[in-house]
Amino acid sequence: MPGPGAYWFGKEEIEAAMEVLHAGYLFRYGNENDQKFLHKVFDLEKEFARYCDINFALATSSGTSSLVASLLALGLNPGDEIIVPAYTFVASYSSVIFVGLVPVLAEIDESLTLDPEDIEYRITPRTKAIMPVHMLGNPCDMDRIMAIARKHNLLVLEDCCQAAGASYNGKKVGTIGDIGAFSLNIFKTINSGDGGLIVTNDQALYEIAFAVHDQGHKPLRFGVEVGSRNVLGLNFRMNEITAAVGLAQLRKIDKIVATLHEKRDKFKNLISSAAGFQFRILNDPQADCATLCTVIFDTKEQAAKVTRALGSKTVDQSGWHVYANMEHVLNHLKKVGQPHKKGSYPKTDDILSRSMNISIGVVDGGLGAGWGININSTNAEIETAASQFIDACNS
After folding, report:
1. Helix 300-309 and helix 379-394: axis angle, to 10°?
2. Cα gap 155→177, rounded to integer Å
3. Sequence-separated contacts (24+) of 8-11 with Cβ below 8 Å
4. Which of 6, 185, 196, 339 could form a disulfide with 66 if both were Cys (CB 3.0 to 4.6 A apart)?
């Protein structure tokens, strides 16, 4: 059950991977004069930076490592607090915890992203940053979030792991805050199996993130920089095969997003006559990824009835995307003085209990999006799915 990019795997990805394998050089670094070194990671970084219209892009091993490197680049100290939404993938929390920070959860709104109204209630003297998550490919209300960040002198890390290809007011997500993190996991808009990217316009942040991802080295090193490293790093490097596949996918991203919008618009138009629900708020209509169509029913009872009839489930049942379903995270938060449990975020609980994620491009039962259509669905298949949804609503 993959994301839309996986449905469009073809000769471009195969040829790109085989080119690297035939060359026999898989490491991200090499001699430019060596014909076996194809510099695919470097090319992916440059093309993604151009795509986002930003100064720097850094390829990593995963979306999670992108978040970890970005958090460390921001210079946050152990015990500092960062505000995150109560609805997001577990990596948003675990990356914060692993670098010694405290995730402070906040409510979502009907966009299923961070509620700007709730952010200021969560700010304490220890708050140093905000992590807006562009959840389900829908950009957050970044104008309001950035205004709050400026007012309180807070850093902003955009978690764009589910939102490659999305924009907000003409700017690609990830380029609005201080730094942005992306995922190339199989469930994402484009993918290379796993892998990630970081973007920023700040050279200092780029250089620190680079050092974190590569054992403390400076960007685009040649050899080992003995004696000149001042950042303690790890190994979050991307390899050449991953980058080659990522490049082939990146070159399809605009067509993927446009196709998803076309199919979702058709599906939404077909089901709009049904009663008892509203569509999720899109903070910049027609600029999200359109990987999902989220509907919010008037009542929990209606949501439960419709999802059950379609063999799906409400979003509050969608595993490690809902704070109350993450027992390991909740156990950790108790240790840092945040004893959360189901009911701690009533607005989020209410919205998610009435919401259904319908697949348009991301077919993922873990997101509660195991039912719907996919990027290759025909008009007849879209019409059939829409009829099934309407029947479930009216039964």
Report:
1. 130
2. 8
3. 8/249, 8/252, 8/256, 8/375
4. 196
C-alpha–C-alpha distance, residues 141 and 134, integer Å: 9
Closest CA to 217 of 197, 194, 244, 236: 236
Tokens of 307: 């999802």
CA 172 – CA 33 distance, rounded (Å): 35
Range 4-250 classified under CATH 3.40.640.10: yes
Local structure of 42: helix, strand or coil: helix
Q: What are residue 292's DSSP bridge partners? A: 359
Name 227's Cβ contacts closer than 8 Å, sequence gap at least 6. Answer: none
**Residue ranges, CATH 3.90.1150.10, the chain:** 253-394
Tokens 């949501």 -> residue: 303
Tens of pLDDT along 125-153?
999 999 999 999 999 999 999 999 999 99
pTM: 0.96
Q: CA dihedral in degrees (97, 98, 101, 105; nearest 10)? A: -20
Contact present, 44 and 250 (Cβ < 8 Å):
yes
Amino acid identity of residue 220, one-letter, is L
* Cβ–Cβ < 8 Å for 110, 351: yes
Q: Which of 272, 270, 295, 277 is nearest to 368 (CA)?
A: 295
Question: In the structure, what pLDDT confidence band is assigned to residue 336 with cuts at 50, 70 and 90?
Answer: confident
| Amino acid identity, position 119 | I
